[in-house]
Amino acid sequence: MPLPDRRADILDRLADHVLAEGLAAASLRPLARAAGTSDRMLLYYFPDKAALMAATLSHLAARLQAILAAATAAPQPLEVARAEIWAAVQAPAIWPYMRLWLEIVARAAQGDAFCAEVGGGIARGYLEWCETRLAVADPTARQAQAAALLISIEGMLVLRSVGLDDACALLVGQPQA
After folding, report:
1. What is the largest distance, in Å, between two alpha-carbon atoms of the chain?
2. Bridge partners of 158?
3. pLDDT at 24
4. Closest by alpha carbon to 87, among 25, 171, 5, 148?
5. N or C: at which end does the chain have fewer Cβ atoms within 10 angstroms?
């Protein structure tokens, strides 16, 4: 298998492992086992563990962005986009991504510099993606609405993770159970 193909295969396997096990299980030997290689070979493909994890988390973010793009329509008004994206992120297949994202954010909030840096890059990418989901002609207004969209989705993720789905439903106009 050529080098770029092997690296892509390793990233897929690492992404699956981190998605299933979280960051706590992201030490070098378990990652190598998940990738079907040795820890030394992982370091052949990546200069160090930080680069390996940054590549893995970026790979996961790109995967999620593709899934969400396929699950959402063309640009919409803010309220429609929020409801559409919220419906998509609640899918059982997407929740592991959200759980991992919350873990990255929590670690960043606790002062983990790596999670703050990588998480900030991922968040910036999603903020830009949110702009593409909004039907707003004025670029400044679109940027402001994209920030509001991302903030509301992030807040709803936190609320959902502590069992306040009813509060989330209110924000997206879903009927209460």
Report:
1. 53
2. none
3. 86
4. 171
5. C
Q: Does residue 112 lie in a domain region? A: yes
Is residue 69 assigned to a domain?
A: yes
CB-based contact 84:72 (threshold 8 Å): yes
Which domain, by its residues, includes 70?
3-172
Burial-class residue 12 by CB neighbours within 10 Å (0-12, 13-18, 19+): middle
Whether residue 177 is predicted with pLDDT greater than 80 in this model: the reply is no
Residue 146 has which token pair?
């994209």
Distance separating alpha carbons of residues 44 and 66, to the nearest angstrom: 28
User: Alpha-carbon distance 17 to 7, whole Å?
Assistant: 15
The answer to whether residues 25 and 14 touch, using CB atoms and an 8 Å cutoff, is no
- The enclosing domain of 107 has a CATH number of 1.10.357.10
Residue 6 pairs in a beta bridge with: none
Domain-embedded: residue 177: no
The domain tally of the chain equals 1
- Segment 10-26 shows an average pLDDT of 91
Summarised one tens digit per residue, pLDDT across range 65-90 is 888 888 887 899 999 999 999 999 88
pLDDT digits (tens, 9 = 90+) for 102-153: 999 999 999 999 999 999 999 999 999 999 999 999 999 999 999 999 999 9
Residue 90 backbone dihedrals phi, psi, to 5 degrees? -80, -10
Structure tokens at 80: 């429609």
Element (H, E) at 136: none
